[in-house]
DNA sequence: ACTAGCGACTCAGAAAGGTGAAA
DNA sequence: CTTTCACCTTTCTGAGTCGCTAG
C-alpha cells in the first residue's frame, strides 16, 4: 500500500459513495502569499500536492472543500499535472472580471457600450405594443380545438410560442443602472414599480361535509361540519409519519377539542387514544381510488375547469408588462406540518378570509373582486415592495406573501445580483482568508471566534445560524453551534454532528488548521455542554464584519460562491469534448452532485430503495451467471485459452451454489408462467376472432420444452457443459466481451443509484449554481440546455443566456 | 449603543402530479 | 398493447437569512 493511500481514512475507502458522511478531509487555513498582487494569480498558483501528509498539506490548501475531496479521490492522476490543470482561460477571465468591475463600479460605462445598450432598450416598447396584456390573455385561454383542426392547432401553438417569446421582458439587455437594487448600497429605498395590477388571490373552496362519522370509544359520533373538517385533516394523515408523531397528535387533539367546544352539538372527546378516525380515512382511500379510475376525458375536463378558475390570477401587470405570478392561492386550512421536532407541529392552521389579506396594488389599478360578502383587509401601494399580497398565518404569527414567479424580471434581477455578488467574492476571497487566518490568533476572543466561524463558513459552506426561539425546532448553523455538536479528536480532527435547516442532519469529519482546532477546544471548554461555542458572536456581528471586508458580503454569499466555484471547476475537470452526450450528462450530474454534497442537500431515500437495490444486484448476478456459463463453454472448446487469458479463468465473485439453484428454479417457474399466459391469451384472441382454439395438447408440448430446459439447467449445474454445434471460440469471446460491457454498465448504475439515494441535486441547481456556468458549458460541449434544465428552469434562467461563449465563473 | 422583534426576501424537502420505459 | 413502476418535474409551504427599527 502506498503512502498516500494510507492517508485516506478507512471510512472513505469502505463507503466510498457516501462522501459527506464520515469522510475525512484535510482543511488547513490558507497561508496566503500577500506579495501576490492579483488575487486571481494567488488562486491559480495553488499547487496540488500528491501526498496528503499533514506536513505538505499545509501549503496546498487554498482550495474549497470539494476540490480537496477530489484531490483525495484522484491523487494518482493529479500527481503528474498539478499546476497546468487550471485552464489559462480561467486566469484571463478572472482578470477581465476585475477590470469590468472597476469600470462599472463608478458608473463609467464606455460610450460605445452605452450606445449599444440604449439602442436595445429602445426596442422594448415595440415588443410591448405587439403583445398587449389583453391579447395575450385571450391566447392563453384558447380552448382545446377539435381533432380536425389538429394541423391548425400545431401552427397556433407555434404562434403562441413565438408570441410568448416576444412578450418576454429582456431586462438584461437594458442599461444596468436602471435596474432596481443594482446599486451597491442594497436594494432599500428603491422604487420597484410605478404601475402594478393583478387579480388578487384565490381562496380555497368552502368546506363540503362528507358526513362520515368518526368513532369515539368504539361508537360513531356526529360532528358539526367545522369539527368534521378538522377531524378529516387528521384522518387524511392517519398513516403518515405526521399522524404517528406524538407531538403532532397532542397538538392536533388540543386544537380539535377547542373546535369541538365551540358548538354544544359536538360531543366531548376526552382522550385521543379513544378516537378512531379510520372510517374517514377509508373513505378518503376510496375517493382516491375513484379519482384514479376516471377516464382520460373526465380527468381532462376537471383539469380544464380548474385552469379556467385560475386563469385571471395567473399574471400581473408590472409597468405595462405581463409577469407570471408564483403562488396566487391562499394556503388552505389544515394541520401545521412542522419539520423535525417542531413543538407546534399538528396545530390547526385556520382558514384565511379576505379581511386578513392585504393587497399591494398601483394607485390607479382596479381593486379586484373577492369572496361574496367579504372585503379585503387593506389595500396598499408600496412601490418598494415586490409582494402582491400578504397575510398572517396563525401558528407562528409570521407573514405569508404572494410573489411573482421565478421567471419574472424581479426574481431574475435579484438572482443575477446574487450570483454577481458571489463572483465578486472571488476577487476578495484570498484577502479575506488571509485576514481571518491572522485573526485566528487574535487576543480578543470576540475576534477569534469570528475568525473561526468564518473559517467554517468558508471551508464547509455552513449557514450563518441565527438564534432560534423555544417555539421552534432546535436546529443550528455556524454561529449557533453548541458544545455537543462538535467533537474534537487530536491532533486536528473535528467531527460535526448537528441538525441544520429543516432538521437535516449534518454529519462530517474534517481535519482543520491547528489553530482552528485549538480555538474550538478553547471555546468549548469555556462554555461547556449545552451552550453555544461562539458565545461572543452573533450573525449580525459576523455579517457586519463581512460587509466591511467586501461591500454587500454576508455569510450566505460564501455558500453561493463555494457552490458555483466547485461546479465550474468540476465541470472543467470532468468533461471531455469527445465524450458522447450521455457521458457528458453523467459528468454534469457528477459535478452537480459534488455541489449537493458540499451544501448537504438531502432527500429521504425512497421507500422502495432497498428493494430496488436488491433487484439490481440480482441483475448483476444474472449477468455474471451467464458469463460463467460462456466461460465454461469456451474452456471446453479450447482449454489452452485458460493460459492465454488468465482473466477469464477467474471465477465470478458472489456467485454461490444456493443462488444458482434458486435462480434456475425461478427461471423455470417464470418460463412456465410465460408459456401459459401466452397460450391463454392466444386462445382468447382466437375466440374473439371466431377462429378454432388451440388444443390443450399444444400447451403440453410447449410446457414439455420448458421441462427440457430444466433438465439442461440441472445438467449444467452438475458440471455437464454443452456447447452448441455452431459455436466458435471467437463467438464466445465476443459474447463474453458484450456481457462484460453490460456488467460494467449495470454496476455503474448500481453505484450511481446508491450514491444518489439521499442526495438531492435540485436545490443546488436551482439556487446555488450560477446558471451562466451551465449555459457556457452547454455551449462549449454542444449539449442542449433542455438536457440539464427543466422547462421552468430554462425560463427562470433566461437572463443567463446573454453571455459570451467563453464565460467563466 | 444595544437588542429583540419583525418584515421581506431566499432557500428547503415533502408531496403531488406527470411521463415514459419496462414488464 | 396495457399496466405498472420508477423517475423526473412542479407545487406547496415551512425554514432560513439578513437588514431595519423601535424601545
UniProtKB/TrEMBL annotation:
Q: Which InterPro entries match?
A: DNA_brk_join_enz, DNA_topo_DNA_db_N_dom1, DNA_topo_DNA_db_N_dom2, TopoI, TopoI_C_dom, TopoI_cat_a-hlx-sub_euk, TopoI_cat_a/b-sub_euk, TopoI_cat_euk
Q: Where in the cell is it found?
A: Nucleus
Composition bias (Basic and acidic residues) maps to 150-159, 676-690
GO CC, any one term: nucleolus
**Active site, UniProt feature:** 768
Q: From which residue to which does the signal peptide run?
A: none
> Where would you say this protein principally sits, based on its record?
nucleus
Sorted alphabetically, the Gene Ontology BP terms of this entry are:
chromosome segregation; DNA replication; DNA topological change
Enzyme Commission number(s): 5.6.2.1
Classification via Pfam families:
Topo_C_assoc (PF14370), Topoisom_I (PF01028), Topoisom_I_N (PF02919)
Keyword Protein transport tagged:
no
Isomerase: present as a keyword of the record? yes
A single Gene Ontology MF term assigned here is: DNA binding
Coiled-coil spans in chain: 729-756
Q: Which reaction does it catalyse?
A: ATP-independent breakage of single-stranded DNA, followed by passage and rejoining
- The chain positions of domain DNA topoisomerase I eukaryotic-type read 335-782
* Biological function: Releases the supercoiling and torsional tension of DNA introduced during the DNA replication and transcription by transiently cleaving and rejoining one strand of the DNA duplex. Introduces a single-strand break via transesterification at the specific target site 5'-[CT]CCTTp site in duplex DNA. The scissile phosphodiester is attacked by the catalytic tyrosine of the enzyme, resulting in the formation of a DNA-(3'-phosphotyrosyl)-enzyme intermediate and the expulsion of a 5'-OH DNA strand. The free DNA strand then undergoes passage around the unbroken strand thus removing DNA supercoils.
Q: Which family does it belong to?
A: Belongs to the type IB topoisomerase family.
Q: What is this protein called?
A: DNA topoisomerase I
In the UniProt record, what gene is named as encoding this protein? ABSGL_04746.1 scaffold 5764
